Amino acid sequence: xxxxxxxxxxxxxxxxxxxxxxxxxxxxxxxxxxxxxxxxxxxxxxxxxxxxxxxxxxxxxxxxxxxxxxxxxxxxxxxxxxxxxxxxxxxxxxxxxxxxxxxxxxxxxxxxxxxxxxxxxxxxxxxxxxxxxxxxxxxxxxxxxxxxxxxxxxxxxxxxxxxxxxxxxxxxxxxxxxxxxxxxxxxxxxxxxxxxxxxxxxxxxxxxxxxxxxxxxxxxxxxxxxxxxxxxxxxxxxxxxxxxxxxxxxxxxxxxxxxxxxxxxxxxxxxxxxxxxxxxxxxxxxxxxxxxxxxxxxxxxxxxxxxxxxxxxxxxxxxxxxxxxxxxxxxxxxxxxxxxxxxxxxxxxxxxxxxxxxxxxxxxxxxxxxxxxxxxxxxxxxxxxxxxxxxxxxxxxxxxxxxxxxxxxxxxxxxxxxxxxxxxxxxxxxxxxxxxxxxxxxxxxxxxxxxxxxxxxxxxxxxxxxxxxxxxxxxxxxx
Length: 479
Fold this sequence. Notes:
The protein has 19 helices and 4 strands. A two-stranded antiparallel ribbon has the order 1-2. Strands 3-4 form a two-stranded antiparallel ribbon. The protein is an all-alpha fold.
C-alpha cells in the first residue's frame, strides 16, 4: 500500500509533470531528436499523462473553480472541440493531431496557467529550479555548438545561418534569447532569497549571457532578436515609470515615446552587430577567406524583416495570404489545425514550403503569427474568446504592478516576468507562440502566464480595486 501511495503521489505531481513536459519539448528541438519517432511517442505519452493529472486536479481538487478567468478558457476549449467535430474526415492523421492539440491546450490551461489554483504550491521553488536548469543547459548547448562550428562541422549551419545543436536557427535564437532574459532574472535579490535554493554563481550567469548573446547573433533569427529587444525596451519603460512619484498623462506619454526610441535604437544596434557577425562567419567558412563585393552586398542587404532566398511559400506574407483565404472558407469556428496543410496547398497550389513527409507537413503547417494562427485555426469565435481572456489577464495582472507597485522594480523578479510576457506578445507577430503548435514555444508561454498569476495572487496585486493616475481613480474592472 505504501508503494502504491508513493506511485500515485509521483504520478499526480503536477510540478514533476511540468518539468518533464518542458524537458521533452526542449529535447524535441535538438538536431538528433527533432525527427525521432521515439521522441514523438514520448511527447504523446507525456500528453496523456498530463491529461490524467489535469482531470484528477479538476475532479478531486476542483481546481477549475479557482482558475482566474477559467470561464473564458473553458469556453475556448468547447469552441475548439466544436471545430474538430465539424472537420472530422477520413484522414486519421489530421483528426488525431487535432485531438492531440485539444489535449495539449487543456493541459496548458489547467496545469501550466492554472498552477495558481493548486493549494500550497511552492511556485517560487519550481520557477527558480526551472530557470537555473535552463541557464545551465543552454550554456552547455551553446558551448557545444560553438565548438562544432570551429571544428568545421557543417551540421551546425542551415542555409548559411548558425543552428548550433538545434534543428533550425529559430530554435537556437529563441533559446538564446530566453537564456539571456533568465540571466537577468537571476540578478534580482529576492528571486534567489525566497526560492530557498542555492544561488547560481555570477561567473556562470555572466558566461551564459555572453555565450548566448553570441549564438543569438550568429543564428540570424530576426524574431528572437525582436524578442530580446522588446524585453529590454519594456523594462526600460517600467523603470522610467518607477522613478516618478506621481504619474501624469504627459509623463506617461513622454516615457512611452522614450520606450519606442529605445526599442528602435536597440533593434538597429542588434541588426548592425548581426550584420558584422554574418560577414565574419561567411568569411571564416569561405575556402580562401575572402568575400566578393556581390557577396558582401547580398549578406548585408534588406531591412529587418526582408526575406532572403525566399522559395515560393517560405515567406510569412505568402502564408498569411493563404491563411486569409482559408479563413474566408471557415470564418466562424475556423479550419482546425490537422487540415491546415491540405488547405494551404489547396488555396495556394504550392507545396514548396513543405517536406515530402505527409505527417511532418501536418505538424509544421502554421501561419508563423500567434494571433493569426488562432484566428485561422479557431475562427472568429475562438479568437474572440482567447483575446477576451488575454486582455483581462493583462488588465488584472499587469496594470496594478505598473501603476501601483512601482517600487519593486529594483529587487523583484515579477517585473521581469511582466516584461517577458509583454515581449512575447510582440514576438507573437512573427512566430508561433500561443496555441496549436507542437513545440516548446507554446508550453513556455503558458508557463510564464502561470508564474505571473502565482505572483500576482500571492502578493495581492490583482486584488487592488483601483488604479490611480494623476489623482484620477479608475476602477480596475474597467481594464
